[in-house]
Amino acid sequence: SFGPGWLIERLADFYDAYPEIDLQLKLHAQDPLISGEVADAFVTANPVRPDYVSVRLKDEMLIAVHKPSAKGSRRHRLITTWLDKGHIGEEWVDYCKASGLKLAELQDGSFRQCTHYLFALEMAKSGQGVALVPDFLAARDIAAGTVTAFSRRLVPSGRVYRLCYRKSRAHEAQLVALHDWLLSGMAEAPAGRRKRRRPA
């Protein structure tokens, strides 16, 4: 979610600032064994080995979204990405507690289940239910009107996105550049809205 939802639209700024760096993007559906043979640096929400630098980038906040035409009903088909046995739909339980809602009064039928936020967002866009997805992932579709916020309330998922790389490589110029660029981008508007100069 971090790659397509946050990183991609800001990449032009990185390329402009660091044209000498050949950046390759790799997407792993499951967190790979963290190894210098797989990538020089990772953004992950999974636990990190102690021999890696772990830089906190972003706490994941979830927003409920659905297709605009789905308004009106008090009960909704809910889309979940929590598929662990005994915990299916757990994020909706947390959402309802934080929102002062009762799940039984909100939910219509069984959960629609999928493994990733990208699936959940597309399902919501096609009118298959209400999805809880990261706010940054839904932002463009909310702005475009392809989905609308069921509620403006944001609920923490408990996941934190971190930049990770080996401690032994912490002083390499290209990793320092990526580290500094990502941290500076956390508080700034997406690329194309505000142009940044290369750090001195």
List key phrases describing it.
single chain; 7 helices; elongated; alpha/beta; 200 residues
The main sheet comes to: 7 strands, mixed
Please give the radius of gyration in angstroms: 19 Å
What general form does the structure show?
A: elongated
User: Percentage of helical residues?
Assistant: 25-40%
Number of helices: 7
Number of strands: 7
Molecular structure report:
This protein has seven helices and seven strands, in the order H-H-E-E-E-H-H-E-H-E-H-E-E-H. It is of the alpha/beta class and 200 residues long. Strands 1, 2, 3, 4, 5, 6 and 7 form a seven-stranded mixed beta sheet that branches. It is elongated. Mean pLDDT is 88; it is low at 190-200.
Detail the topology: elements first, then pairings.
Elements (H helix, E strand, L loop, with lengths): L1 H6 L3 H7 L24 E3 L7 E15 L11 E3 L9 H10 L3 H4 L5 E2 L3 H9 L4 E5 H10 L3 E2 L5 E12 L6 H13 L15
Parallel strand pairs: 3-4, 3-5
Antiparallel strand pairs: 1-7, 2-5, 2-6, 2-7
Report a brief summary of the structure.
The chain is an alpha/beta fold. It is 30% helix and 21% strand. The chain is built from 7 helices and 7 strands, in the order H-H-E-E-E-H-H-E-H-E-H-E-E-H.
